[in-house]
Amino acid sequence: MSAILKFLPNLKFNKNLKSKRNTKSSKATINCPIALQWIISEERLKALKEKQNEFLESEIFDGCGFKYSLTIYPNGDGKTKIGQTRIFLRLYLQQNAKKIDAEFCLTIESAKYSNKMNHTFDKSKGWGIKCCSTEKLFDSKRKFIVDGILTIRVEGVLKVTKLMKDEEESAWNSRDFA
């Protein structure tokens, strides 16, 4: 605070002010844009065409207090979803991420498929939707797979609510970011 007071010498600072929080940590929200393109060979998908509850996962990327990836289940992710191709955004929350409000869009441009979604993640998990039937995924007329490749894109903003420790909050309040 002394740096601020040097620039504002007439300002009187009340040292007896107390924080409204009763806990040792507070929350901060950070907007974290994501964009990912995942290219999957038809051969890898065909290997799972007849298998239930089997999936492929993209590379795992680092975000702002979390890691994320895409997963695809070519033949369903549960007994009632056999025969459905399902795509998920999977988040791995790290220690200080309390929750993540996700607004994202899954797109397969070649098939003119696009789906916007909103979901709040409060634990590590995936969230997605049925993209098409397993039969349609492999139907060349539907153009999900073109030239032996399926290309999935995800774009969005993840609003990460983080728990700030006392030291982080103290640096924030004093504007000491060094």
UniProtKB/TrEMBL annotation:
Identification of the protein by name: MATH domain-containing protein
Membrane-spanning parts: none
Residue ranges of domain MATH in the record: 35-156
Species annotation: Panagrolaimus superbus
Protein origin, superkingdom: Eukaryota
